């Protein structure tokens, strides 16, 4: 059976993605900072879907540990999905470098560090799929979350460059730009219900996009058009808005 | 994020902050900084039992932890729904030991309500099948309990409406089945007397319940249909069913897209519905083999059927009367039929022996009725409560949204003992609901 590696497996979105792929008969490797916390999900995937699952300790911001982490995987994954992210607090980050650096390093540097390693392996093997969960927040900086948004913007650019390079090696790279999603990360925010997706919807979109070898998806689909409008507002007007 | 929450009856709705969790520590953190917290699963209790200022949604705490397919033992986190469990266990030849009339409830909810099923007279209620469970109590500890271990906590949690704490893990026994089908028998009864006689005659069936047309008067007073069933054996299946006896084909579900305007429900439409329901069985007795889903969960096929009662919502009135007090049943049905306040659904069931600490079932007759919320309804239900009290019965807390405190304290003989155990495990009243405040259990 093909294997999927999920980086940042503790989040609500990761649980939905793991179940979507396990339901389609993929073995699942779960990686997160707190390895022990993954064992209920590991059992759940085995019992519900009859697939193999395993757990690993992985810290996105502990860059030096990344090569050893990937080398220790006895089965190398066919698909690697980077789900981890840290929304953090924009306001706190403006004054506190610790918060700002955690936002930048989790969402950008950490992702680059681990995906560089996976990319090298896939390029050598001439096969594989890399999925990066970025965000619509990376499409245009807004006063309310530009630290998170700028890190995601960097991640989006990284993924498109990686796609360009690995295309020639037979490796597929998918960038995912989710809009609002109901997860623990967003449960204290006021989200517009019509524009907010459930993690399962995002997971299903990702599975289909992997199968169809899509380059980039917005989930849900209408975010493509929302972002088109937001991106086309001239800067002299945009700066006056309170977004 | 503050939002308005209501349970299945859409009454009452209150402003509430809802949080989710996927680790025990997250709940412990949450309760250490909040009070007036209550656990909430899929919101299928009818009234206000899982409504509080802060609700802790268990829906993301939904992992299967172990499934012993040899001995039929299932262990899971509390937020998984029965519907998901059935998808896992039925293909392996196991079934829920006890299931209520909807599969869209969580395991935690099944414990907190100590749900009963059509097999109560044979298998008791859900608590009888629990091997052990974990509860995060008001001291923020995770306590493992069972009928042997911390029995006071165990029995106050089974049917205890979440007032001892947050149920997080449940391990329970399953029932062996050979097929995913039910051999069903439906028998028409001319009136209430006929129906009760039929219950007696068919009491050896594992599953039984009856539907009553409660608007009939005279000779047809209390007419209805008795429905009994057994898990079918492979030999009872037809050729098509026998090909994969443990697998059902997936069906599309209908959904009620919005609340119906309330004028669609009046005595006339209810009468017409009941009349059609009774007449659709043209023969006195029908025997067939059907998939388990329509047998156990006929209303689940219409998602959001609760919207049929309109925006004002409805209350479900379910009471139980001791076996020897069936004249109380007649008195209540008469009162409903005289008032012309019929309900779409009136379900009658006979309970077997059970009188646990605070769970609803006791040996006797239980009747469940729906009433759309409208002016004068609560006064009318207060009158029904008096009859229930007079005959030594009680109301089901999972469906209650309006019972007066004195009705609860008079009808539940262990109410005082229950309140003392709540004090022991939830002394700071961290866990409380609109219902528990109304019943003076946590006020």
UniProtKB/TrEMBL annotation, chain A:
InterPro entries: NAD(P)-bd_dom_sf, SDR_fam. Gene3D superfamilies: NAD(P)-binding Rossmann-like Domain. Belongs to the short-chain dehydrogenases/reductases (SDR) family. The keyword ATP-binding does not apply. Keywords: Oxidoreductase. Coiled coil: none annotated. GO terms for cellular component: membrane. GO terms for molecular function: oxidoreductase activity. It comes from the Bacteria. This is SDR family oxidoreductase. Pfam families: adh_short. It comes from Chitinophaga agri.
TrEMBL record, chain B:
InterPro entries: FAD-bd_PCMH (IPR016166), FAD-bd_PCMH-like_sf (IPR036318), FAD-bd_PCMH_sub2 (IPR016169), FAD_lactone_oxidase-like (IPR010031), Oxid_FAD_bind_N (IPR006094). GO terms for molecular function: D-arabinono-1,4-lactone oxidase activity; FAD binding. Residues 8-177 form the FAD-binding PCMH-type domain. It comes from the Bacteria. This is FAD-binding oxidoreductase. The lineage of its organism: Bacteria, Pseudomonadati, Bacteroidota, Chitinophagia, Chitinophagales.
